[in-house]
Amino acid sequence: MKEEIKWELKKFKELAVEELYDILRLRSEVFVVEQNCVFLDMDNNDHESYHLQGRAEGKLIAYVRILPPGLAYDNPSIGRVVTSPSYRGRGAGIELMKTAIEKTYQLYGTHAIMIGAQLYLKQFYENLGFSKCSEIYLEDDIQHIKMVRNP
Predict the structure, then answer these.
(1) Backbone angles phi, psi at 38, to 5 degrees
(2) Considering only Cβ atoms within 10 Å of each terminal Cβ, which end of the chain, N or C, has fewer?
(3) 61, 54 Cβ separation under 8 angstroms
(4) Can you list the pairs that 118-123 forms with residues at least 24 positions away whose Cβ atoms lie under 8 Å?
(5) Alpha carbon of 132 to those of 52, 81, 104, 122: distances in Å?
(6) CB–CB of 10/66 below 8 Å?
C-alpha cells in the first residue's frame, strides 16, 4: 500500500525551526554526503523562495524550493529537488515535481519554468515536459544542463 504524501508550501519566514532543520538535513544528506560533494548549500536564495515539503507519517521525504523570476533565472525556477534515499522508488519524485510545477504556475502564472538539472536525471525531467536548453556545464564538479518547461 502506497503511503499518502502530504504536501505543504511555505515562504521561508513561515517555516518552523523544526521544518527548516528537516529541510537542511535532507539536502545535506543527499547533496553533500550521498553525492560526496562539498559545496555551500545555503546560497542566500532560500529567503526569497517558497519551500514545498512532502511528508509521509510526519517525516520529510521530498522537497523542492521554488524561486521567483529574476532570482536564479529570468523565469521562475525549481531547485534543490530531493527525495529521501529511504523513500525512493515509490513515485515520490514524480509526485514532487508534478506538485512543484502546479504550485509554480499558481504562484507566478503560466510561464516557462527553468531548472538546472544534474545530467543523469535528464530523462526523468524530459518525462515531466522539460527540454534541454544548454550545453553540459559543471556545477560543484557534477555535470548539469539547463532545462526549460514551456507552458
Answers:
(1) -85, 115
(2) N
(3) yes
(4) 118/142, 118/143, 118/144, 119/143, 119/144, 119/145, 122/147
(5) 24, 17, 19, 8
(6) no
Report the alpha-carbon distance of residue 112 to residue 5 in Å, rounded.
26
Q: What pTM, to 2 d.p., does this model score?
A: 0.92
Q: Which CATH number fits domain 6-149: 3.40.630.30, 3.30.230.10, 3.40.50.300, 3.40.50.720?
A: 3.40.630.30
Provide the mean pLDDT of the chain: 92
Confidence of residue 1 (pLDDT cuts 50, 70, 90): very low
Length of the chain: 151
Cβ contacts of 137 within 8 Å, gap of 6 or more: 143, 144, 145, 146
Q: Strand 113-118 relative to strand 59-67: parallel, antiparallel, unpaired?
A: unpaired
